[in-house]
Amino acid sequence: MSLLEVRDLRVSFGRRKIEAVRGVDFEIAEGQRLGLIGESGSGKTVTALALMGLLPENATATGSVRLRGSEIIGAPEAALARLRGDAVSMVFQEPMTALDPTMRVGRQVAEVLRLHQGAESGPARERVVSMLAEVGLTDPTRIADAYPHQLSGGQRQRVILAMALINSPDLVVCDEPTTALDVTVQALVLQKLDEVLTASGAACLFISHDLAVVSQVCDQVLVMLDGEVVEAGTVAELFTNAKHPYTRGLVATARLDQTRPGQRLPTVEDFYAPGTQVGGPQ
Amino acid sequence: MTEPLYRAEQLTRRYRNGGTEVLALDHVDLTIEPGRRLGIVGESGSGKSTLVRLLAGLDRPTSGRIWFEGTEITTLPERRLGFLRAAVQMVFQDPRSSLNPRMRVGEIITEPLRSRLVRRQLPDGIDHATRLAEVLEAVDLPADSGGRYPHEFSGGQRQRIAIARALAPKPEILIADEPVSALDVSVRAQVLNLLTDLVAAQGLTLIVVSHDLMVVRHLCDQLAVMRAGRIVEQGDTETVYTQPGTDYTRALLAAIPRIRTVGQAPSR
Complex ipTM above 0.85? Predict the structure, then answer.
């Protein structure tokens, strides 16, 4: 049995039932890292929210999402709350909005621990400081006593990473975790994510619009387009031998270094025109 | 020798942030010749946005001087900066926040033409509707876009609207501050192609601020690397890329995410 099994997941919004996710199937094994790429509006974030039971109230989800065999779709909120932060946790794009600006970050990380493990505050503090050190924050004691605004973007994102990992979840869902960061900080955060995932053995679903970023953490990738998974494979396969024209377009646009400066860059439209029917593998 | 487009000497900008003083720009010298494409790279807080805001006349230096086409702009009062406002236009990072959501796209694009300061610099009888149609065509947006609102457009299209607005008063210089970093990779190529074409077709001088060295390499022939308020390296783009002269530039280059496949050593 896989850690996570998603079967014919469909999510629609509002009274008009506009489908954002249209029949998605995939699995994640224990410790496996799966990348999910696609552009804005392709349904990647909605898929992630469905896995966490975090869809907004106007959304309707059908199909099946099983985490360790227990069904998420339609599960009561109390059961979902126990799962979140314990069996599965999430790292969002914008660290400033995911942290409470009025609370010292150490307390915020400790709260996750207390909620799920009922830890005492003394030992909790030690766990928090060692977790902050694990995600590569130098001077973790000082960081634990700081407020979010006193930290840089990269430090904040690593605090979020510490929060996501402190309960040793089986699965960490990362949604564009480095998109708001500088390239140098992005490289550091990706490296730390890689290290802590390796150390904890947690599985990861890593969402990004950038194939190069996904390839830093994952070997297996799903490509989403208009609510459907149009291709799945290893980074190497997609990169050298993509089957779907849209994937070929994504690969081509991701590589600025393949075009001479000033020359026209390839676009997705050169490979795939939206709305066209695509036959089988070409 | 002809006068450079921009000449900046010993530019320094200090801010007070609460009780602490921040030195955002530290004695920067810079010359920009007309028709060049200059990229300014560095991390958040390196001073790159502060520098271009000073060049655009949106902020004043604490000390130091800037000449634009031989005229010193650092001492001029706002009411006499009309020539600069017409000649220099900016495109910002996030078109969601830089476009007024309550204005129709047509009003947004022609707004610079209605500015009292800029108006006096424009040729008499410039027709707003004609100019709107011209710039919409230049950025490849449908001719009927003017009557719609920004939220009806995708992220890439909104950045085209921002570029159309910048082009409206026929500027000589386009300053783009992180023009594609809020966009999907798939849309990025389109906007970069558009910028390349426009700069060539209209003979613009381009200044691009970015933390993404690949974007700057693609767009620019000259490069300035900034760190902690100073320009630490400067030169011809290809030379800086292929033979970086400082460890800092080498670190920036090494941080660019590259597609990594199984069996390949990590690129970091």
Answer: no
Cα gap A146→A209, rounded to integer Å: 32
Same domain, A93 and A29: yes
| Test mutation, B37, B158, B184, chain A, max A CBs within 10 A | B184
CA-nearest residue to A252 within chain B is B186
Residue of chain A minimizing CA distance to B238 = A261
Q: Are B244 and A199 in contact (CB under 8 A)?
A: no
A106 and A17 share one domain: yes
Q: Which residue has the higher pLDDT, B266 or B95?
A: B95
Amino acid at residue number B257: P
Question: CATH number for the domain including A37?
Answer: 3.40.50.300
Looking at the structure, do residues A111 and A177 belong to the same domain, yes or no? yes
Chain A residues whose CB is inside 8 A of the B221 CB are: 261
Does A234 touch chain B if contact means CB atoms closer than 8 Å? yes
Range of the domain at A249: 242-282
Query: What residues of chain B lie within 8 A of the CB of A265, using their CB?
Result: 189, 192-193, 218
pTM of the model: 0.87
Residues of chain A with pLDDT under 70: 95, 119-121, 275-282
B238 contacts chain A (CB < 8 A): yes
Measured in angstroms, the CA of A175 and the nearest CA of chain B are apart by 14
Distance CA A91, CA A48 (A): 11
Residue A3, helix vs strand vs coil: coil
Contacting residues of A for B247, CB less than 8 Å apart: none
Whether residues A117 and A225 share a domain: the answer is yes
Report whether B265 contacts B250 (CB < 8 A). Answer: no
- Tally of structural domains, chain A: 2
Q: In this predicted model, what pLDDT tens digit does every residue of B165-177 receive, in sequence order?
A: 999 999 999 999 9
Residue of B29, B9, B37 whose CA lies nearest to B209: B37
Task: Say yes or no: A156 and A215 in one domain.
Answer: yes
C-alpha count within 13 angstroms, C-beta hemisphere, residue B61: 27
